[in-house]
Amino acid sequence: MESKKAFKKVLLLGSGLMTPALVDYLVQFKDTQITVASNLIKEAEGIAARHPAFIKAALVDIFNVLYRPHL
Asked: In the prediction, which pLDDT does 4 show?
């Protein structure tokens, strides 16, 4: 009987210079679902496009309650 691993969930706040390297590292384990939340949605989407099966992008603006998604 083969058991399935549960996906780990990771929320990354920001899409800075180290984010692409970090997501590349995390997805190599194939057991992590990553959300890249940033106020720069285009950058977050670009990072998510690297590994779309494991990463999604979200817009977050901590100063505007209307843009705080349920992450």
From this structure: 67
In the block, tokens 């590994």 appear at: 51
pLDDT digits (tens, 9 = 90+) for 9-59: 999 999 999 999 999 999 999 999 999 999 999 999 999 999 999 999 998
In whole angstroms, give the CA distance from residue 64 to residue 45.
20
Spatial neighbors of 13 by CB under 8 A, at least 6 apart, are 37, 38, 60
Measured at the alpha carbon of residue 22, what is the angle toward residues 50 and 19, in degrees to the nearest 5?
75
- Global pTM value: 0.82
Domain ranges of the chain: 8-34+41-63
Distance CA 55, CA 63 (A): 24
In contact, 51 and 23? CB cutoff 8 Å: yes
